[in-house]
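Morning F.,

Quick status update on the modeling queue. The single chain you submitted on Monday has been processed. Sequence for confirmation:
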Amino acid sequence: MFGDHANFRLKVLTFEVVDFPGSYHAILGRPCYAKFMVIPNYTYLKLKMPGPNGIITIGSTFSHAYTCDREHYELATAIINSAELPELVNSVTPAVPDCNGPTSSSAFHPTEETKAVEIDPTDPTKTVWIETKLLAK
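Structure tokens below.
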């Protein structure tokens, strides 16, 4: 049923119910549009159809459409993450780095073009390495 008690259209629709989580309550397709003689306007988020006492307009707002799209995105992300997480857990072996162990060979080593500059004159341990051959810009 579309409209209010003064101007409404009532038709019986046959549809399928699918068992999956989604943000939409119903998805109306071309058979529904044909039965109600609906003209959808996707730019203005409106459905217009003839009624017994004039045109019936069903609409929404852009903020409501954005909220629905945002909820749908969060739901889809959660579903994908819940499906991928068990695969990732099985394929990755957890490793905890040893912070007290010796440094690896890939640790940062300054080149000849860098020099140490103190950040805090009261604490000589706080230094940064900067490049000595900077461009004139």
